[in-house]
Design a protein that fits this description.
Layout: H1 2-10, H2 21-45, E1 48-49, E2 52-53, H3 54-62, H4 64-77, H5 93-103
Antiparallel strand pairs: 1-2
Helix pairs in contact: 1-2, 2-3, 2-4
Length: 121
């Protein structure tokens, strides 16, 4: 799991190519666990500014670009443009559509965004 997280961070701002489901969702899970841990630490250290944890905000800013990049590459794996992420701006329905796209099985063959990266999923 950690290797997938590190792999995404190595491709910090790479918006081209493809990312398999495993790469995207393990990165998502690691982010969730780290954010939860930082929220606990923020609470223990009482480092909250108007109810928002300072460590959590710093971490979120640090992983914003890699999170966006891996989501774009994940959409590329399904044959969709990264611009489909903007559907998430539509309240509720848009977010559900984007989650379905991110969870969809990728194209098994080469598509216009490149060849398959993760052949196991």
């Amino acid at each position: 799991m950690i290797t997938w997280y590190q792999e995404v961070l190595k491709k910090y701002a790479v918006f081209s190519g493809r990312a398999g489901r495993r790469e995207y969702w393990y990165f998502f899970l690691c982010n969730l666990l780290i954010s939860f841990g930082l929220a606990v630490i923020d609470g223990i250290l009482n480092s909250l500014v108007q109810g928002i944890g300072v460590l959590g905000v710093i971490y979120s800013l640090a992983v914003f670009v890699p999170s966006l990049a891996v989501a774009v590459r994940r959409l590329h794996d399904t044959g969709r443009s990264g611009w489909f992420l903007l559907l998430g701006l539509i309240p509720l329905i848009g977010a559900i559509i984007v989650i379905v796209f991110l969870a969809s099985k990728g194209d098994p063959d080469t598509n216009k965004y490149g060849s398959r990266v993760d052949k196991s999923v």
